[in-house]
Amino acid sequence: MTDKVRLDIEGPIAVITNDNPDKHNAFDDEMDLRLFGILGELGARPEVRVIVWRAEGKSFSSGRDVAALGGGQVTMTHHQLMTRGHRGIQRIFDLDAPIIVACKGWSIGASFQRALLCDIRIAADGSKFMLPEVTHGVIPDTGGVGRLFQICGHGVASDLVLTGRAMDAAEAFAHGVVSRVVPPDDLDDTAMEMAAKIAAAPAVTIRTARRVIKHLAEPEIRTSMAEELIGQTFVSRSDDLAEMRAARAEDRPPRYTGS
Description:
Low-confidence stretches: none
Radius of gyration: 18 Å
CATH topology: 2-enoyl-CoA Hydratase, Chain A, domain 1
Helix content: 40-55%
Strand order of the largest sheet: 1-2-3-4-6-9
Shape: globular
C-alpha cells in the first residue's frame, strides 16, 4: 500500500492528503487505487461528517504520472483502466460526507476533474487549473468536464477543453469553479475551519442538503462519464492520434484526416 495518499481522521473530520511532492503530486496507479480505497473506507464510516482533501508540497496535483502510466497493470486495456477509474472516483457520489478540496499550485487533468466532482473547492492565491488533454491527442475522461459545464457554461468549458489553456485562481473564482481564494499560508486553516463549521451542523441536515444538491447534478455527470468512456476508447485507437505521435517522433507537421 502506497503512503503517497494518506488518510487521517480526527473526530468527525477526515483528511485525505496527496503526498508525492517531488512530482507535484502526480498520480500513479498505486495512488489511484489507494485513493479509491480511502473513498470506500470513508463510505463505511458514518461518524465522518466532512472530508478535507489537501496536498503536501507546491501543487494539489499535476495530473497523471505519465512515466508510471499503467505500471503493474499492463494486462489491462485502456478501456478497462478507464472503467476502473470511473468506478473508483464515483465513490464520491456515494458518500454522505461532503468533500472540501484545498487547491494550490497546479491542479491539472484528471486531478482537476476529480476536484470538480467534489462538493467545494477553495484555492490559494497563485493556483492554476488546466485540462491539457487535447494537446496530447486525447479527451478529458474523468467526469469533470460535465461538472465544469454545469458551473461555467458551454463557452468557458469549451475554451478550457479545446485550447488546453490554464485558468488562474482569480478567473476560477469569477466563474464559480472555486468558492474562495485565500493566501497560501491560510489555505489549510481555511479548509479546516469550513470543515469544522459543517461538522458542527446537524448531521441529517447536512446529509439531506447535500443529497438535494447532488440530485440536481449527478445524473448528467454519470451520463457524461459514460460518453467519455466510449469517446476516449475510440480516440485512443484513431488514425489522428497515431499520426500525432508519429509526427512528433519524426519532428514533422502532422497530417490529420479526422478519423
